[in-house]
Amino acid sequence: MPTIKDVAKSAGVSPSTVSRVINNHPRISSETKKRVEKSMKEIGYHPNIIARSLVKQKTNTLGLVMPYSTEEAFADPFYSEILRGIGSVAQNKEYSLLLITSNGMKEELEVTLKAVRSKRVDGLLILRARSNDKLLKELKKLKTPFVIVGRPEDEKNNFWVNNDNIESTKKLVEYLIGLGHEKIGVITGDSKYIVYKDRLEGYKRALEDNGIEYNPNYIIQTTGHHGLTTKYTKELLESYPKLTAIFAVDDLMAYGAILGIKELGLKVPGDVSVVGFNNNPLSQLITPSLTTVDINIFELGSTATKSLINIINKEPTEYYHEIVKTNMIIRDSCGGYKG
Questions:
Q1: What CATH number has the domain spanning 61-163+298-326?
Q2: What is the pTM of this model?
Q3: Rounded to a whole number, what is the distance in angstroms from the first to the last CA of the chain?
Q4: Strand 219-221 versus strand 184-188 pairing type
Q5: 167 to each of 170, 180, 275, 293, 320, how far by Cα in Å?
Q6: 308 near 146, Cβ under 8 Å?
Q7: CATH fold of the domain at 165-295
Q8: Which residues are paired to 291 by β-bridges?
Q9: Three-class SS state of 245
């Protein structure tokens, strides 16, 4: 197996110079770095990552805190896409990824803190923002670098990356209003997740700004389970048959809503228009194709990962956040009100 001495001999430099190249020492010239890296590749030398980690007190591993079990998370295309964004940056920066999944908040706290205390990760990407989050408080006590994908309750004292969910939702609902819809139902998720609170707030603001009365009875809350969403949609439309449109806070819920509408013998968009959120890949393939908001999931993941690596390496003294732009995608699931 090739050693540092072999690389040094091949590149015509000292072993200490090779070591500095491996550790990205700032005083090594780009010419020397290229020559050493070329020699490493030619003779098949690979640095001992574990040894480097022990010396640097770093693992070069990022922990990804998922809000669900592995099975549930990967049933949602959002997570496969955000992992693609995270992985693109992590690979480029030579970081490995550790997936942290759980069944509930208590287990999430235990598993995540175990990974941190056992020094298995250099920092964490928390792929959700939740109310009264004990995990954030514990991580701050441990001085663990972390970035939240989502808007935390304490915006000014955290690093986070998000979309403007309130404004994006307001524009989406106003699109429905512009088509003549005033009685618009909402399918939302667990209120402990701030993203759902923000999207519901955007809905309320759209109604208020357009002089439409808000009716809390038009709101149904679901876990996101496909069967439940279909069931609740049918119950909502049976209770309030004058509803002409439904806003679902994410695309998976919109799919369940469309199925529920069809099971009632109604047509989308002929009888009820439907809009979703997130622009999951399936949204352009279902029938009818779904009008939704593209939140640029890949960019959310890549931006959050860049921020975390920056925090790990540079330790910024002030908290900051970044907002990723959204785009409304108009497809076939909406039509004008025919009443």
A1: 3.40.50.2300
A2: 0.83
A3: 78
A4: parallel
A5: 5, 20, 15, 11, 20
A6: yes
A7: Rossmann fold (3.40.50)
A8: 275
A9: strand
